[in-house]
Design brief:
alpha/beta; CoA_trans_fam_I; CoA-transferase subunit beta; NagB/RpiA_transferase-like
Length: 239
């Protein structure tokens, strides 16, 4: 078996977001987060609940295992029993996220998805982020519009938490006194200097940044043969 690719390290980093969550509803958005959630369910997070995005609870292979009525889904959303992994067109040092527009919101240069469910997600249940192309255009000093709420704006919201941000360069958290972003691990082949150069604000960088956890042989087998045999992960992160 060949060694893990950058995409597979990203899968592992996303999967780890749900470690120790217990019986919560995983809501991964994107290819690699979805592979990560399914891998977590098959390995270290057997109590994790997966959904088809509509009304069914599903097994890692996508077959139904239960029904999730909309009224019950809303209860999970607002009661801290869901852990979302969203994307971000922009994210700042405190975890404020933008998926709505680029430029002044009254006259934006570019219209994006819109605010959608980001405020409800971030204020009412844990929310992590997946960013497949780490750059200064995404990791910005100040987002143009706040959609997902960061630590400086959460005002003590009971279920607000941002467990981690995963990019194609590394893993980031907010384990700092002021709850600003910290470099938690580097994917193999990536340097601290590369991350700093690709980030539009000053990151907290501890001494001796560890490497992102390597997938085990069994995890690699599951990724390649069970969860993503078609190799969709490589289309999101090619390295």
């Amino acid at each position: 078996m060949t060694g893990p690719t950058r995409a597979e390290y990203c899968v592992i980093a996303c999967a780890e977001a749900w470690r120790d969550d217990g019986e919560v509803l995983a809501s991964p958005m994107g290819v690699i987060p979805s592979i990560g959630a399914r891998l977590a369910r098959l390995t270290f997070a057997p109590d994790l609940l997966l959904t088809d995005g509509e009304a069914l609870l599903v097994r890692p292979d996508g077959t139904p295992e239960g029904w999730l009525p909309y009224r019950e889904h809303l209860g999970w959303v607002t009661g801290g029993r869901r852990h979302v992994m969203m994307g971000a067109s922009q994210i700042d040092r405190f975890g404020n996220q933008n998926i709505s527009c680029i430029g002044d919101w009254e006259r934006p240069r570019r219209q994006l998805l819109g605010v959608r469910g980001a405020p409800v997600n971030t204020l009412n249940n844990p929310t992590s982020y997946w960013i497949p192309r780490h750059s200064r255009r995404v990791f910005v000093d100040r987002v143009d519009m706040v959609c997902g709420v960061g630590y400086d704006r959460a005002a003590g919201a009971r279920y607000h938490r941002i467990p981690r941000v995963v990019s194609d360069l590394g893993v980031f958290d907010f384990a700092t006194p002021d709850r600003s972003m910290r470099l938690a691990s580097l994917h193999p082949g990536v340097t601290v200097e590369q991350v700093r150069e690709a980030t539009g604000f000053e990151l907290t960088v501890p001494d001796g940044v560890p490497a992102t956890r390597e997938p085990t042989g069994e995890e690699l087998r599951l990724i390649r043969e069970v969860v993503d045999p078609a190799g969709a992960r490589a289309r999101e992160v090619a390295a």
